[in-house]
Amino acid sequence: MINKEKFSTRMLKRFYGVQGVLDEYRRNEIYKIGNTAFIAMFYYSLISNFLVVLILSLDEYKHLESILFWYIGANFIFVVFGISGYIIFATKSRHLVENEVKDIAYQKKRLINISIKQGFTFGVLTFILNGIMSPHLSELTSWHTVRFYIIAGAFFGLAMYFFQRMNLKKIKE
Q1: Where do the domains of the chain lie?
Q2: 3-state class of 25 per DSSP?
């Protein structure tokens, strides 16, 4: 009987980039990183919401759209660069994303196949979703758009290969 992973375990491994078995040490370190990121986001949300309400009340709601635009931009920058950057840095510094393998040549071939699938899936899904959202589905019929998404999928697959390749580590026997 195959021991299937729980959905929550698969999501943790996918979100934090952990490959292989998620043992107790890795799980506890991931929980610590996630808790620290949540605390930072919580305090940032409290402080930034207070500041926006204060600025809006002092401004007497004259520049509401521009203040909210800058607030949304600041939140986006904080989450993408602050929180995500912290998570990437912490998982790499604690060696949680390293994939220790015995046969590195086989793993490189396996990563090439995985990266091709990821690039193809990315290209096809972005082509379809952007085509559906375009007016009158015009992007689904343009050959220029098809070429663009093929190139975008190839670059995405290449980037994923190099990212996953950096995390391979050969075990010394």
Answers
A1: 7-93, 100-170
A2: helix
